[in-house]
């Protein structure tokens, strides 16, 4: 059986009305066009074209797309023209091939400005015809599968580009099978030591884990059958990159992540999904807070499923997904699954267009962003971040990027609601407009006709829609103000506002402690332990710098002469501030430092110094020296910082560490 015959046979399984002759003609044309061309692997170039077509067939795409997949390199690597393709295969196939060719010329490793513009072009091409990016993803997947034949520098750059651009885009389009393989292959080339270490550990535990999962599947299948629910129950494989990211993000070792058992239940209909959920929760104890209903609230990439986690009989944790066969196809193939429904008439054009509405809205909002850095940041948030689902008081579900604030929510409801947003409530209590929304929050926006958008909102809003609307409103307001000033210059009297008074900064006073039986002694506070009012302290008489005050238990106190240790206490007479050093550890992400600084400044705390750096393991360290009044004041600040997304540790440190 020839390669094209095998492709035609697979197409016929899911689309009996398919134009198989078109695929056969495209194969013959590609065979003639690429005759004599060889890949670096030594394989005929045509083998790449057929592999791309096989991946598209596996996504159950239409024959026009598969034909374009076979021809996708003709314009790039041969002398054939678009006009020749159009004459032979029609305008649609020629347009798709040209779109893939143009996308292949975009480079994502240039300056940030060029990178932003190239991503914008790629998204525009995607919005015009989703099949262009589907062909490109299939092309990229096969290139990654054969990447080892390229020079090392190209292997690194292509893998990084795949992980940063193509894998997240596949995720947003809901194509899990392509996203997972792209991520695993990228990890293999970018971090081979980590990849092969994970591969070895997975292989070691494979037999044991497969038996445990099979026992769970057998038990669950029997209970479902008793209840009259026909379903397929299988183990759910964990991908290497997924394991790696969880180890980094959750700071857990391999055994803690891999010990999670993962099952999937695929039912015949929607009703049985919820019936199966009831059986699962009857068999095992549900883990509180781990149930998510993505059937009632689908993700933006059309993903639908019930997610739950339970504790098995031996206390082991089991994660379970429950979905119908159609939902399972969508989970694997994403937008590609619905393209075929549209082509065959099983889904209306209007409904299909609704599924791409998020992408078109994103492009509309991104058009207003001229600054490349802001464009890239908005893109990462809107396209590549997770989601948070919140509710209006009337129960309407609003989906927003993770990290969105009350102001983002207001603009998602309506532009006027956002522009007039004065305050917000979450779950019935007042919250700051900067409040980061959590899953399931019921959010209410309080408006005022006198309210207008403030420029500082741009410092914390997350969505492109909110940024775009705020900027537009500020621009209109500034133009109106310019008009008023022009009128005043033409002869209208101008009212002069009195100058604002400057608040004088009170001079800092020296910290004060009481020393039994001594007065007029020079006192200094040790930088090794940063004593603050409220700490238990002890005095140490130095040889040349007076009395050094340390926190009790400070390891730098050398007790070679107990007579040099003095009992001291805070006298509490003077109001002053003291330098305190803190170290923050967090999962690295965009705007992390800005968010931590904002949490400190909201408490009107002066920041004497700030230093932050990222580490290779995906974490970040932030060191601060701040001015506080006492230990209680410092604890309040530490608590506020711990509420920042991604922060997992805040502790006092040495001033020397933060200097």
From TrEMBL:
CDD domains from the UniProt entry: ACT_RelA-SpoT (cd04876), HDc (cd00077), NT_Rel-Spo_like (cd05399), TGS_RSH (cd01668)
Key word Transcription present: no
Family matches, as InterPro entries: ACT-like_dom_sf (IPR045865), ACT_dom (IPR002912), Beta-grasp_dom_sf (IPR012675), HD/PDEase_dom (IPR003607), HD_domain (IPR006674), NT_sf (IPR043519), RelA/Spo_fam (IPR004811), RelA_SpoT (IPR007685)
Gene Ontology molecular function: any one: hydrolase activity
GO cellular-component term (any): plasma membrane
Keyword Hydrolase attributed: yes
Biochemical pathway: Purine metabolism
Matches recorded under Gene3D superfamilies: 3.10.20.30, 3.30.70.260, Beta Polymerase, domain 2, Hypothetical protein af1432
Record keywords: Hydrolase
Disordered as annotated region, ranges: 471-513
Occurrences of domain ACT (ranges): 581-655
GO BP: guanosine tetraphosphate metabolic process; nucleobase-containing small molecule interconversion
Feature: compositional bias, Basic and acidic residues: 475-493
Function field: In eubacteria ppGpp (guanosine 3'-diphosphate 5'-diphosphate) is a mediator of the stringent response that coordinates a variety of cellular activities in response to changes in nutritional abundance.
Family, similarity comment: Belongs to the relA/spoT family.
NCBIfam families (UniProt xref): spoT_relA
The protein's name in its UniProt record: Bifunctional (P)ppGpp synthetase/guanosine-3',5'-bis(Diphosphate) 3'-pyrophosphohydrolase
Highest classification ranks of the organism: Bacteria, Pseudomonadati, Candidatus Hydrogenedentota, Candidatus Abyssobacteria
């Amino acid at each position: 059986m020839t390669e094209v015959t095998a492709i035609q046979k697979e197409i016929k399984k899911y689309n009996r009305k398919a134009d198989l002759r078109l695929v056969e003609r495209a194969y013959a044309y590609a065979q003639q066009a690429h005759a004599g061309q060889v890949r670096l692997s030594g394989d005929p170039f045509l083998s790449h074209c057929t592999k791309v077509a096989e991946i598209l067939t596996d996504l159950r795409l239409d024959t026009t797309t598969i034909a374009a997949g076979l021809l996708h390199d003709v314009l790039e690597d041969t002398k054939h023209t678009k006009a020749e393709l159009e004459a032979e295969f029609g305008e649609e196939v020629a347009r798709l091939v040209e779109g893939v060719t143009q996308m292949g010329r975009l480079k994502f490793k240039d300056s940030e400005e060029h990178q932003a513009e190239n991503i914008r072009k790629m998204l525009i091409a995607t919005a015009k015809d989703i099949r262009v990016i589907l062909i490109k993803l299939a092309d990229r997947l096969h290139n990654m599968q054969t990447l080892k034949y390229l020079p090392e520098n190209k292997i690194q750059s292509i893998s990084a580009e795949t992980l940063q651009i193509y894998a997240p885009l596949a995720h947003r389009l809901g194509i899990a099978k392509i996203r997972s393989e792209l991520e695993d292959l990228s990890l293999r080339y970018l971090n081979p030591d980590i990849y092969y270490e994970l591969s070895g550990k997975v292989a070691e535990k494979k037999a044991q884990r497969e038996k445990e999962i099979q026992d769970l599947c057998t038990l669950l299948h029997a209970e479902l059958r008793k209840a009259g629910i026909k379903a397929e129950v299988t183990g759910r494989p964990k991908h290497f990159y997924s394991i790696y990211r969880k180890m980094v993000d959750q700071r857990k070792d391999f055994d803690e992540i891999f010990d999670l058992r993962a099952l999937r239940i695929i039912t015949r209909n929607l009703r049985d999904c919820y019936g199966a959920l009831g059986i699962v929760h009857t068999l095992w104890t549900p883990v509180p807070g781990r149930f998510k209903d993505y059937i009632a609230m689908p993700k933006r990439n059309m993903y639908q499923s019930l997610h739950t986690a339970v504790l098995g009989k031996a206390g082991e944790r089991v994660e379970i997904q429950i979905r119908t066969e159609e939902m399972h196809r969508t989970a694997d193939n994403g937008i590609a699954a619905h393209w075929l429904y549209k082509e065959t008439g099983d889904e209306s054009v209007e409904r299909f267009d609704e599924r791409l509405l998020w992408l078109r809205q994103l492009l509309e909002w991104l058009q207003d962003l001229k600054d490349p850095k802001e464009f890239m940041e908005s893109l990462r948030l809107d396209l590549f971040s997770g989601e948070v689902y919140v509710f209006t008081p009337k129960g309407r579900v609003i989906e927003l990027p993770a990290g969105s604030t009350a102001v983002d929510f207001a603009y998602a409801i309506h532009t006027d609601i956002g522009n007039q947003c004065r305050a917000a409530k979450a779950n019935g209590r007042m919250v700051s407009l900067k409040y980061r929304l959590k899953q399931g929050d019921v959010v209410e926006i309080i408006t005022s006709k006198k309210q207008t958008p403030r420029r500082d909102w741009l410092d914390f809003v997350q969505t492109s829609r909110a940024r775009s609307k705020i900027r537009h409103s500020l621009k209109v307001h500034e133009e109106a103000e310019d008009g008023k000033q022009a009128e005043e210059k033409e002869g209208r009297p101008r009212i002069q506002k009195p100058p604002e008074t400057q608040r004088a900064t009170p001079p800092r006073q020296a910290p004060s402690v009481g020393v039994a039986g001594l007065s007029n002694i020079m006192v200094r506070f040790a930088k090794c332990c940063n004593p603050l009012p409220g700490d238990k302290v002890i005095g140490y008489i130095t040889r040349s710098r007076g009395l050094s005050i340390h926190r009790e238990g400070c390891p730098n106190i050398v007790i070679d002469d107990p007579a040099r240790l003095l009992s001291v206490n805070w006298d509490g007479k003077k109001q002053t501030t003291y330098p305190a050093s803190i170290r923050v550890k967090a999962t690295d992400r965009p705007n992390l430092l800005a968010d931590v600084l904002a949490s400190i400044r909201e408490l009107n705390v002066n920041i004497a110094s700030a230093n932050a750096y990222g580490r290779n393991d995906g974490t970040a360290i932030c060191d601060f020296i701040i001015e506080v009044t006492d230990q209680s004041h410092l604890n309040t600040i530490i608590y506020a910082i711990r509420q920042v997304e991604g922060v997992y540790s805040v502790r006092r440190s040495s001033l020397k560490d933060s200097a």
